[in-house]
UniProtKB/TrEMBL annotation:
Pfam family, one: Hexokinase_2
Keyword Membrane: no
GO term, biological process aspect, one: intracellular glucose homeostasis
The protein's annotated pathway: Carbohydrate metabolism; hexose metabolism; Carbohydrate degradation; glycolysis; D-glyceraldehyde 3-phosphate and glycerone phosphate from D-glucose: step 1/4
Name by which UniProt lists this protein: hexokinase
Compositionally skewed regions (Basic and acidic residues) per UniProt: 703-721
GO MF terms, alphabetically ordered: ATP binding; D-glucose binding; fructokinase activity; glucokinase activity
Residue ranges occupied by any Hexokinase N-terminal domain in the UniProt entry: 22-222, 474-669
Domain Hexokinase C-terminal: from-to ranges: 230-463, 675-940
Lineage of the organism: Eukaryota, Metazoa, Chordata, Craniata, Vertebrata
UniProt xrefs under Gene3D superfamilies: 3.30.420.40, 3.40.367.20
Segments for region (Disordered): 698-731
A GO term from the CC aspect: mitochondrion
InterPro entries tied to this protein: ATPase_NBD, Hexokinase, Hexokinase_C, Hexokinase_N
Amino acid sequence: MLAVHLVSSFFSKLQEDPTKKVDRFLYAMCLHDDQLSDISTRFQAEMKKGLSAESNAAAAVKMLPTHVRCTPDGSETGQFLALDLGGSKFKVLQVKVREGMRMRRGGVEMEEKTYPIPRELLEGRGAELFGHVSESLKDFLHEKNISLEKKHPLAFTFSFPCEQSTLDRGLLLSWSKTYRARGLQGKDVVQVLREAIDKTGGMHIEVLAMVNDTVAAMMTCGFEDRYCEVGLIIGTGTNACYMEELCHVDLVEGDEGRMCVNTEWGAFGDDGALNDYITEFDRDVDAASNNPGKQIFEKMVSGMYLGELVRLVVLKMATLGILFEGHVSDALRTKGKITTAHVAAMEEYKNGLKNTRGILMDLDLTPSPDDCVAVQHVSTIVSFRSSNLVAAGLAAILTRIKNNRNLRTFRMTVGVDGTVYKTHPQYPKRLHKVLQRLLPECQVRFVLSHSGSSKGAALVTAVAQRLASQKRKVDETLSPFRLSSEQLQLVKARMRAGLEAGLKREGPSEVKMLPSFLYSPPDGTEHGQYLALDLGGTNFKVMLVNFRKGLHQSSQVLHKIYTMPLEIMQGTGDELFDHIAECVSDFLDYMGIKNDRLPAGFTFPFPCEQTAIDTCKLVSWTKGFKATDCEGNDVVSMLREAIKRRNEVELDIAAVVNDTVGTMMSGTYEDPQCEIGLIAGTGTNVCYMEELKNIKKTGQKKGPMEREEGKSGREENKQEDGTNGETEQEKADIQKMCINTEWGGLGDYGSLDDIITPSDVEVDHNSINPGKQRFEKLTSGMYLGEVVRQTLLDLTRAGLLFRGHVTETLKTPGIFQTKYLSQIESDRLALLQVRSILQGLGLDSTCDDSIIVKEVCEAVSRRAAQLCGAGMAAVVDKIRENRGLDHLNVTVGVDGTLYKHHPHFSEVLQETARVLAPQCNVTFLPSEDGSGKGAALITALTRRREEM
Ligand code: 0WK
Ligand code: 0WK
Ligand code: BGC
Ligand code: BGC
């Protein structure tokens, strides 16, 4: 027998190699690499179309969001029922996932049973199909003695294109493969399943998640390999999914993190995109299918059609006399007579030819050895084209991931399932090889999902449960930061009460309401050169301000910024003022005006009792300052003594102002309606023009706060009424004085205890002034980073973040600077960058972690802005009521790094003030040159008045 075979093949060699004639006949199916690259490029374009909101409706490749946002991280646990519907087998399963067992044996235990689905159900009424599914589920519970009483979470793998708005909702877009039950298209199949289960009754099932089989395959393999972010099915049908950047998925809210997208690539070409690769046999398969014009790519690739393609090719070649000497059998003319299993059998290494012969014989054909070689080669070409097309599709997906993540080379794992991939002898190798050629820069590993997709579906449910419980717990932790409008109204009322109590000066008040001895705004006639010393929250600025005569609002500012080292801020008072004197001297030297003895205004951003415009007794340090021997002393004298000590320059300190007052004055120079100064920076504070009649005259009632008598040189001409020797006319005109509220102290006696959170308590406890400046510690840049860090610590200790690892970094005070909030909350920043900020802090984070960190930052900064907005509403409403107005237009000069640099702080503050003080139209005027110009203006005002 073997001898005969050898002789005839020798002769045939002499004749033409039968595979050659097949190659010629199927030339159009033999796709070479540049054609595959072309197809890959076309598919990339289709993916873009599917992802974009504009073109999605018309797109053939639907790119369906799955609401699966992350792959397993090994902490999934739980017991689930699973339904696996849509592949070649309908399976009911029970899946047990044990915590942290990931790779190890016994990590996931599964029990399963396959249930046949009669053809009449596949083509019958949808409700009956799901009735059958539900009955099978009940049968499974019985058979496996699973309690019917207990509530069972169920994961549903449904392998058809569905539009999902959530993980447990899916509108069926269209059937494919062998399914076309009526009445379900456009319906939420999860709801249909729930109704079927209720109808069957006698079991407590909670359908928690519905996933496509590609997603389930990716999750199944992702449980073992964390690089697995692509799912691939080459089975009855074909399809792929992958983790896309959420910011590219237009159909889903949010830009944070990633989401798995079910490409539904089976429909690639439904819009004609592959017409130049479609062969007559593909057209015949499509025409004879139950969904003509649909799933064009699937019909060139997947198991439901490969056998039919081979049959049609062999039929055509036989009809043309190229095979079986033109003999054609009825069997060969019969649809479905050659299956994909036959194709696989024909391509088996050893028995391929023998199988081919057997298969053709079963089709009532008497094939010659050459016929067998030829038919085997037809199978090879058809299945080769399938693996080539899948490689082209995969190359497109991997290229997109590479570009999304700006990677030059990368590794990726593809979780794969499906009978074609699993049973066709050479398919996997061919696919891997072609993909390697198409995308050499990507190291691709294929992991077969041995146990089908239900483990993955269970994991999706476990992840969904974990994320849901995590989200619930994170929301619980963050809800105290989310202030209701009632709470904000309350804060406004308490701030108002604080303002009133502070003005009354009947004993210690949370809001100190310190007179600034500034009565009137600039009138634009200010001119000349003035120095301004601006002890900002983060640095010390010396400015030379030149107001040009007659040119309203035109001033020239030259300045130099000096750092304020911590050891100076927390050293002795003398060292602090010596440092300031040294900077001033350096500046005057640098400007060549050492001996000009220019009048100077000193911005001193701390609570000070003033008895005149140039005296300033420090009540208490705030923010990061705690230099010794300063509290209770007149800081102007201390500065003058330091200047004297330095004996290099002369300084004529004419005025000392709080930075809010300086900022207000800078604002008034631009906009006369500016009567409020707001600082939202390292610290927080506000000043405003209060009616003089509401200000308890300083020195009149010797309140507990007014004791020491360190009187400065100018004191002797102070009038009892606290004015600065103004003329009668002026005295008559003076209706108002600027009050430095020091609202940072609200809450110091407990008025905010009901909104203070455990994180705030920790921050206050660890601060250098515990119990003080409570409002400031909820709202200002010095503390927001710490409030976030404390909250991240709580969440991590609760196991909701960083996998519960409380690292030394996270325990380090000050590690999470407030500037990171601004960066992390900026809309332009993708999550990747959030992760790199956390990385930079030595915090190794997952996608989820970064989303939670951003949420914490948003909650903390939003609360801060809202609280300042509520405080501002109290101030503007007080001014409005002071003046008996129904409506007030007022401008606020504002400064501070938090207000200026945080992406959302200013708008949230403004919005809150607008809502809580609807009768006030408040304009916020960010100040250009800070409070320095304001201090120079006040100096100009003060000097001019003294000259009069
Ligand atoms: C096995 C999976 C199932 C999927 C099927 C696809 O468990 O979810 O639909 O693979 O392959 P097929 O059975 O269609 O060949
Ligand atoms: C700039 C002002 C300065 C003020 C500072 C506050 O010129 O007087 O103290 O803003 O902002 P911070 O630097 O604290 O963010
Ligand atoms: C379906 C997909 C499914 C694939 C593999 C296709 O016909 O449209 O949803 O993933 O078959 O089962
Ligand atoms: C100080 C205020 C200052 C504010 C803004 C607070 O800590 O007490 O005087 O205006 O910070 O710098």
